[in-house]
């Protein structure tokens, strides 16, 4: 039986915790997928206090924390992408907790949030070489809709699958 998690909205006071957790997760999970230089660049770009504050307090977007007891073990960030469509932008758990069903719990939470906002589609982007995440999303009903390569600056690319799940 998966460990139950408590999921709650992040607040500005949680920003340092989110940035630290992202740093830990990315440095453990992504070196086999992207370079350390790209990891450093993307962490600085996406997990600085200004970016995180926007993700917490921006209109039609949410960042929620997953807690086991009092310990923050992961987070998810999502936003309204288009009419009827929600974009799952981030879903991260401490790597030691992978394979316990916690990611699926977070996904169910995001699906419920999307449905509450009358979204019928949940979409995400995942690195084409992130086999573990692709397998988890596939187990949870996502299918590949597209393949994209996006220039994110400084010579770095995001080489992703766009995956989608009908939640209507």
UniProtKB/TrEMBL annotation:
The keyword Nucleotide-binding does not apply. InterPro entries: Acyl_CoA_acyltransferase, Bact_Acetyltransf, GNAT_dom. PROSITE patterns: GNAT. Keywords: Acyltransferase, Transferase. Residues 5-168 form the N-acetyltransferase domain. The keyword tRNA processing does not apply. This is GNAT family N-acetyltransferase. It comes from Chitinimonas viridis.
